Amino acid sequence: MAGDSDSDTPDSIDLADAYAVKTPEDSRRLYAAWADSYNETFITANSYVYPRRVAELFAEYVPVSGYTDVIDIGCGTGAVGSFLASLRPELVIDGFDISPEMLAQAAQTRRIDNSHVYRNLQEVDLTSALPNQIYSAMTSAGTFTHGHLGPETFLRLISLIRIGGWFVIGINAEHFKARGFAETIKSAVLSGIISQSIIRVVDVYETGSPHHGDKANICIFQRQN
Ligand SMILES: C[S@@+](CC[C@H](N)C(=O)[O-])C[C@H]1O[C@@H](n2cnc3c(N)ncnc32)[C@H](O)[C@@H]1O
Fold first, then answer.
1. Does ligand 1 have an atom closer than 6 angstroms to the CB of 13?
2. 69, 116, 125: which is closest to 96 by C-alpha?
3. Could you say which architecture CATH assigns to the domain 50-222?
4. Cβ(54) – ligand 1 distance below 6 Å
5. What residues form DSSP beta bridges with 221?
6. How many CB atoms lie within 10 A of CB 60?
């Protein structure tokens, strides 16, 4: 992958490198090399609109009152948090990510009043550790994808949200199919852990992007038990 190769520069890292990730160590290496240029060479260059769609669906479904503390899973450079903070300025947003370099970028994001977008940013490998804070809502974009987080992590993360709390979680549509997310969600519903999930299929990249056509399933549900 690009993060490993002598011939790659941070500017040449792209989506293929992200999809080639297989382990948390691969993620650490890739995003360490990509963090400084990620916003420009990935978000802007590819018209990556997925974080905005997650934030918009959060604003559409999650009531304003009673759901002010949010955890952004795999927050990266802070795109989801930035959109959320502009749509819902009252939100207190924390971010978890495995990459200290991506977190350093997220720490620079600012709200319209110049305060920080994120209250706390924590370095954590979510495939093996689970922070013990409890939140009233969870968001994520671009992190439940090939080689990153799978359905077993998705299930474990439910316990970070209080009963009645909301989830607005994007899952890459191919990864959703290949890794059996539908069955995981179905069994969590049947066992009473979560409510029926609304799934909104969205474009990850805008029309005109070299990757236009890739889809994500944004799953919206509440913790019940
Ligand atoms: C494609 S980026 C998405 C970042 C941001 N949410 C966005 O939409 O721009 C995926 C993020 O997942 C993080 N990540 C990958 N594996 C992880 C793990 N095991 N635990 C926590 N974060 C992880 C990466 O460091 C990276 O910041």
1. no
2. 125
3. 3-Layer(aba) Sandwich (3.40)
4. no
5. 167
6. 11
Element (H, E) at 90: none
Q: Where are the domains of the chain?
A: 50-222
Ligand 1 centroid–CA 43 distance in Å is 13
List the structure tokens of 41: 């060479």
- pLDDT at residue 54, rounded to an integer: 98
Closest ligand 1 atom number to CA of residue 125: 20
Residue 6 scores a pLDDT above 60: no
Average pLDDT over residues 30-44: 97
Share the mean pLDDT of the chain: 95
For a pocket test of ligand 1, which of 28, 36, 77, 98 has the largest count of ligand atoms closer than 8 A to its C-beta? 98
Among 8-17, 107-116, 119-128, 147-156, the minimum mean pLDDT is found in 8-17
pTM over 0.85: yes
Ordered alpha helix ranges (H), the chain: 15-19, 24-34, 38, 50-61, 79-87, 100-106, 151-157, 173-178, 181-190
